[in-house]
């Protein structure tokens, strides 16, 4: 039986081992583990890749979001608009600053935050008082917008940025799954809003050997503020104008990521080829509404951090594929507005029907670059067999 794991990083490591291991030894020999030359070089190389003037290496994608919120002065009394269909850190970091997450529903085609839903929320539940946009139900200041570029496809940023400009909102791009993703006219995500936030969790397209993250910005003053915040708000050392945290990226992780960054576009192209194979093969299988393949928006660059299908009888399909040694995953089975820790926000089942539908219907299929054609064919044949 052909085995198809959801992800196999061992194959990737074998490809780069001869480059990575000497660098790890070099860092160990230097004993310079904190904010060394590899960190500085990786920040320059990754920010250039993302099309921004500055990059700030941090300890994780979660901490990237947290540092961005802190640097923009978001805290108690503030509210931040975002999606309920995303990884927990998106809303979790908002809450950790003392601010309040506000959820708006997603576009069913892309799974990303719906600009129309954001506009409807503002029109029906907010009013402008002086320079502030005030949410009527809570009296909180709506201060920022946090769209998520989910699964490696850009949110529809033009209308979202227009909304932000009209109402004086800061924009934090949650690009944790989207390094190299492009919006219209080859604009890289992470360069559109005030701050872009990336994760280098090992399973990402650009993955570290542990946790690591990055903030990108075109605002040099904001970049400096984030650099200070990541070292407990101290500049110079032991003198603290700000209250920050320990949010530094490790020198070892930066060294590994520098090697991997050189391969990233090739790995992305392989993911795109695998996605194109799936698209064509599932179309040939004529599964109709039983299985819907992902929609890649024309003119954008989808990097396929995940290949997400909508599947009838999703849970049964997942079990069927597991029996045939095919790895899958459900991202995300419980939308954030239904999580117990956010019960205090007052949302109910049915408030965001597209997010709830996506949570019930979507399934990630293996898409990693090193998949062989026989493995891809096994996935398609097994899915088709299930629906027959």
Reconstruct the topology from this structure.
Blueprint: H1 9-30, H2 37-50, E1 54-58, H3 61-71, E2 78-82, H4 89-96, E3 100-103, H5 115-125, E4 126-129, E5 132-135, E6 141-146, H6 157-167, E7 170-174, E8 182-183, E9 187-188, E10 195-199, E11 213-217, H7 220-229, H8 251-285, E12 291-292, E13 307-311, H9 314-323, H10 353-361, E14 362-365, H11 373-387
Give structural notes.
The chain has helices at residues 9-30, 37-50, 61-71, 89-96, 115-125, 157-167, 220-229, 251-285, 314-323, 353-361, 373-387, and strands at 54-58, 78-82, 100-103, 126-129, 132-135, 141-146, 170-174, 182-183, 187-188, 195-199, 213-217, 291-292, 307-311, 362-365. The protein is of the alpha/beta class and 388 residues long. It folds into two domains: 9-104 and 111-259, Type I PLP-dependent aspartate aminotransferase-like (Major domain) (Aspartate Aminotransferase, domain 2, 3-Layer(aba) Sandwich); 264-387, Aspartate Aminotransferase, domain 1 (Alpha-Beta Complex). It has a seven-stranded mixed sheet with strand order 1-11-10-7-6-2-3, sandwiched between helices. Strands 12-13-14 form a three-stranded antiparallel sheet. α3 runs parallel beside α4 (89-96) and α5 (115-125) packs parallel to α6. The longest helix has 35 residues, at 251-285. The mean pLDDT is 98.
Strand order of the largest sheet: 1-11-10-7-6-2-3
Number of strands: 14
Describe the largest sheet: 7 strands, mixed
CATH superfamily of the largest domain: Type I PLP-dependent aspartate aminotransferase-like (Major domain)
Report the structural category: alpha/beta
**How helix-rich are the residues, as a percent range?**
40-55%
**How large a portion of the residues is in β-strands, by DSSP E?**
5-15%
Provide the number of structural domains: 2
What fold name goes in the CATH topology slot of the largest domain?
Answer: Aspartate Aminotransferase, domain 2
Helix run count: 11
Overall, the morphology is globular
